[in-house]
# Entry
Amino acid sequence: MTSAMPTNWHEANQRYLMARLEVVREALTRHIRRSTQSPDRSSPDNSRRVMLEATREHPVPSALDTVSEAFGLSAFEQDLLLLCASIELDSSFAQLFATAHGDPARCYPTFSLALAALDEPHWSAMTPAAPLRRWRLIEVGAGETLTSSPLRIEERVLHHLTGISCLDWRLQGLTEPLTSPPDLPFAHKELACQVVRLWSCSDHADASPLINLCGEHRIGKEAVIAFAAAHLGIQSYLLRSTDVPQPAAEREGLSRLWEREAALAGCALVVDAAESDAATAIRSFLQNVRGMIAILSREPFSLSRRRVIRLDFNAPSSGEQKDIWRHALGENVERLDGRLDLLISQFTLNAEAINAASSAALSAIELAASAEANSATIAAVTNDDVSQSSSIFESLWNACRAQARVRLDDLAQRIEPVACWDDLVLPELQRQILRDIAVHVRHRARVYDNWGFASKGARGLGLSALFAGASGTGKTMAAEVLAAELRLDLYRIDLSQVVSKYIGETEKNLRRVFEAAESGGAILLFDEADALFGKRTEVKDSHDRYANIEISYLLQRMDTYRGLAVLTTNMKSVLDAAFLRRIRFVVQFPFPDAVQRAEIWRRIFPAQTPVEKLDLNKLAKLNVAGGNIRNIALQAAFLAADSGEPVRMFHLLRAARNEYAKLEKPLTEAEVSNWV
# Structure
């Protein structure tokens, strides 16, 4: 009776697998007959019939075919693999093994049984270098001898033979699947096409070149590789360099495990080497592992014994970003009233970040509209076209800031600006320079790009400012004022975390800070920067040479940073002259005179603070800077709160004495005469 035709590949593969198992069963049965009695001429040899039946059920290609071709298995090795799979797929084989061994406890396959029962046996199939053990298709259990030890098929290989594709469980904790985006910007799609061509032109996986996608924006690089892999009909998996084992034996095991997975599933490996470009473990791993491999790094990645093809990854161009924004916003783009260019000039985001920012902003607007719908007055205001345009633009701006700050929050301290122009007491010249700084930040895209200054050269386009003055004169407050004015994030760089005694680490830390800040053009505040930006020294030893390299690297990064970098120092004289030449703005914060100190006292107390009979002219005689004035005012407020009274001159006198004691400075009678 002719069996029904299989309806799909999985059914055909299953029938063929079971038919091939019957070939193995027939070989075991024949071996048992030979071992237990004389050959029975009346019992027909069914092996030829069983093999013909298996061939008739054969799908093209079967899972067994892909394993045999990928690992170069001989006919005997195929049957040995099936012998190990048989006990997992058909429990009746356990009895056959026990009978063949003449021992009820030995209900498992062994090398000795395979050599005796299967056709075309060869001893070399048992060696560690042979495919079955080299690629860990089977496992050898504990036994007295190699040939008598139990054999077991690897779980991943067993699933593959049955037509089920699943990542090896040992790789699931080390790798993560990448999802291909529906589309890419044109330039990134071109990169993906190059990856496809490079992987497609290789005759076999061993010859596939390592592709190094070099540049910033890790997520964008992942999207390019995932897009290319999807075009080839394969899955890509991400392996972080920090997850590559350090011991050589474990590293070799991971290589074999991945190569087996790549051969079974036809997948690609994406190695994120951004955080350990020079790590020995990741380099050793990549020297030896074969298959379709892509390396993601910031700087060019090279290996001594393997060909690495470098492809530079750049952020989407302004035009591409505009197309992505238009697609993400849909009809809402018209509500921006032409201000989309302002977003693009400030924030350099990849497609994923733009889509996330758009989604977050539109969701926030919908929630706000729902809340406001209950009030007729508010609803009437939000229905105005100008109000709607401002609302969506502000939401998008804030959403972009949130997207851009993700990486920087781990590297620097974000300061929420609370100061405004009214809080800043400075001479008019200094205030005007600060306003000019804001003008340069706000219009740099128009001047550099639209008016062509960027085409004259990239050097000198970085925007930097030096705030010099004694402690407490308002340098950090001025940075806060600029951040609030420009609606940008302000990050204080902790120099103790940046400067390292290890050669090369300072540059790496600085690079991470600047690159993380690029996407949002954040304001970087290097507070008390003279510790890092001092004068370059005469080279007397290797430490001096590397210290000068650090300074030169910093000069270069400040020159190309598209945002605003603010350096503060108490001692302008110690700064390297090369810094001063390249810094566009220098703002000298003078020690406040009596008139300015009176103005600071006038603004220091919030409107809610109860005060009584404060004499600003007398307070202005205190010869301290604005930071100290704030400390005195705050301490006096606590003293007044404790006594249940408004802030009076008495509280301020006591607070002033404490502040002067902290400064180790005498409080003269001229400063506090007739206060109380």
User: Anything to note?
Assistant: The CA atoms of residues 324 and 330 lie 10 Å apart. Residues 1-6, 376-383, 536-546 have pLDDT under 50 and may be disordered. The chain is about 50% helix and 10% strand.
